[in-house]
Amino acid sequence: MAMSVGQEDGDDEVISAINTTPLVDVMLVLLIIFLITIPVVTHTVPVQLPKQTVQPLQTTPKSVEIAINRDGNFFWNESLVDAPTLLERLKTASQQTPQPEVHVRGDQGTRYEFIGRVLTSCERAGIAKVSFITEPPARGG
């Protein structure tokens, strides 16, 4: 009586069956997650909501554009102004309700001294929001 332990003649067969145990585990976890979350999402009282458009309660203020050229000249919305006039106009703008934002557009070659004068004037006038306008760098250049 002969007994065979192992394979004879070197028959190495490739096992071509797919192990589905990890797939079943993942699907079971997803099923449990969906079973828990779906009742929470869909649990609302069915009501007929009114159709209405919303009107804004507060109008947005116009922004003030202050440009500073390379020579240090100030421009209030494209009109040339001197430093005392700029301060007076900023004080007038700060009294508006709602207060407008100030957008500062400084030339790249402008000395920081002139930009600082505009910021100091905005602070003295009580302007709450001051933004700097820049351009994004050119692509592929």
Structural class: alpha/beta
Alpha-carbon Rg, integer? 36 Å
The largest β sheet comes out as:
5 strands, mixed
Count of separate DSSP helical elements: 3
Mean pLDDT: 83
Low-confidence stretches: none
State the total count of DSSP E strands. Answer: 5
Cα end-to-end separation:
86 Å
Shape: elongated
Q: What's the quaternary structure here?
A: single chain
Which helices and strands occur, and which strands form pairs?
Elements (H helix, E strand, L loop, with lengths): L20 H22 L21 E5 L5 E3 L2 E3 L1 H12 L7 E5 L5 H14 L4 E3 L9
Helix pairs in contact: 2-3
Describe the structure.
- Keywords: Cell membrane, Membrane, Protein transport, Transmembrane, Transmembrane helix, Transport.
- This is Outer membrane transport energization protein ExbD.
- This protein is α/β, with parallel strands linked by helices and 141 residues long.
- It has a domain at 70-132.
- Helices cover 34% and strands 13% of the residues.
- The protein contains three helices and five strands, in the order αβββαβαβ.
- Helix 3 links the parallel strand 4 (102-106) and strand 5 (130-132).
- The radius of gyration is 36 Å and the shape is elongated.
Quick recap:
The protein has three helices and five strands, in the order H-E-E-E-H-E-H-E. The protein is α/β, with parallel strands linked by helices. The chain has a domain at 70-132.
